[in-house]
Amino acid sequence: MSRSFRYFLCILTATFLLLSCTKSKLTLHLDFNASAPEILYGVEKIKELHHSNVVDFSDSNPDLTIQARLDTVNLKSEAYRIVSQNRVVEVAGGDEVGLMYGLLEVKNQLKTGGRSVQNKQESPNLMFRAIKHNLPWSTYRNSEALSLHYETCRDTSYWEAFLDMMAENRFNKLTLWNLHPFNYLVKTEKYPEACGFSDKELAEWQKFWRTLFRMAKNRGIETYLVNWNIFVSPEFAKAHNVCDYCIENKHFVPIGDTSEIIKDYTRESVKAVIDTYPYLTGLGITLGEGMGGMTADEREHWLLDSYIQGMRMASRKVKFIHRVPLSAGTGSGGSTSVEVEKMTRENLDSLTCVDGPINIELKFNWSHSFSTPHLVKVHGGELTDAYWNPMPEKYYLAWMMRNEDFFMLRWGQPDFIRKHITTNVHPYVNGYYIGSECYIPAKDYITSLAGASYRYAFERQWMFYKVCGRLLYDPNTPDEFFTDAFEQRFPKLGKKLFEAQTKASKVPLIIASYQNATWDFSLYSEGMLQSTIKNGGKALRLIPLDDMADKQPMDPTYLSISEFLENEYNLPDDKISPVHLADSIESFCNQALLEVKRIKPGKNVDLLYEVSDIKTWAYLGLYFSNKLRASVEYKRFIISHDEKDLQKAIDWLTIANAYWHSLVEVTTPVYKPVELTHYCENDKEFAEVFFHWSKVEGEVKAELDWLQGQKGNK
What distance in Å separates the CA atoms of residue 186 and residue 181, rounded to the nearest whole number? Predict the structure, then answer.
């Protein structure tokens, strides 16, 4: 090597070193005078940037000074404003939570190495933005898929991560659900036998609850305990010979136990919990499965005599969630009536022992809200305007967005959430709940490959929570925000992944909109399954072609196949035919596959799952679209008896089956057969307890054999 060339290399090396040194870490100075935990949380999150090697903190000539203050005059509750000028970033909040959101926004802008902060102002569109989180003790149903989360949900590290996610995504209510929570929280003086824990065990439980409620408060998140009725602890049931169904944790009972001692125990428990946990925000109740045999009026009076009286006995007022009656009759299967709605409203209007307005919860489109954004039904049937006409003064309504349709695959569809909000937020609506009947997003028992970056199940569905939370807070949040979130995780692939996921995520919405399901088990869109009766028990089975052929869709813009065939040559302009629907699904699914075709995940397990899930949704959509075409031709054959129509149905179903096989090929390496929430009952109510698309392929093939066997059987 010549001397001149060595000299050149030295100069080049020095130049690179000089350039690397010129881009030093950004220096920040934090200027705030506050002791509120929410503000301190936001400050601590900015300080975390130091650990990620993005910024340094200095009081001497910093690059940026972050000033934090309250502005309760110009900003509403939970709103914030960021103004950046002359190396000073002023963050103002309408209250402590708003200021926290502003500080979190500053952190997000700086965490990728940016050296400036952009002006921004946001104000909450909805004040009730809740997660429905089920607990793995005293569970609504008995299932290994629920109990396996026990240790994870007892670990406050899990809750710290989950609450961080909620704060980041602007969720501000955590509702915790199980059949009967009280014996896990208190041992009352009057009924100590109801708590089966030793003093040491109870002390550990109480430390857990206090930590959880305090961590939520520090992040601007209210906490609520929501349960079903009439249920007690197994220990109480045995000691007083009541509620025998509680001993085996049965959730659906024909006759509820209305013994006076249960009312008294409930009053004492409610009082004790409120007095013991000052950071607990409120309670919620269900007039549900443990109240079989009671009329709606009897259920409401039981509530007033027990829960409400216990709240009156407590030392402070708490907030209150009142789920609307699930049944207008004495059964628990679900029904509605205007008389029950009016009766419930009268009771709500008369309550005076609660803190602030009551929140009433209604299931949007029963258990399958991820379907059409049009309100077609609630639990039990159609809803009248009794709850909002005239405008209520004592309560607001919040929609329950129950997700029983996808537990395994990643999902994100911002346009659906935006349209849902635009269509269904009225002056009497203040928010939404997001969650499942039973699924618990804690232990990740679904991912089969090692090497993923996340610890917990909810982190797999990161875009689901981000889309729902951010848009409930500000529905004007642009797609660029979500694209950037993908880009931060997967550099140079953000736009492709976001666009592919938004297209593919339409698939379960369309399946649920078309299938018009009701209760939990009636549909599992992700698996193209519905419940049926087999050998005297319930089972999940492939949605049959003849069922699709006769289906009246939930979405009012969809034509049924019968309506389409009756008006095939004079279709209404404002309706979508099954053929046009199939064409649309095929188009966007193929586009989604094209978006990810050239992405090679390599050893990046997180990226592999993102791409695999997009492909899975797309292949499921292509299966559904071609099966829908087959259903049209099969229905035409039933009418015409022309085997040419039957052959067309066979041809379409053959194409559909090929796409199902593609789906199996994608999912087999990344997902193993797993127990899925309430589809796995310990009492063997369901014939099959494990799910994987490969386990359904036999039914897929058998249906094609059945259809081919229709030849010659006019």
Answer: 9
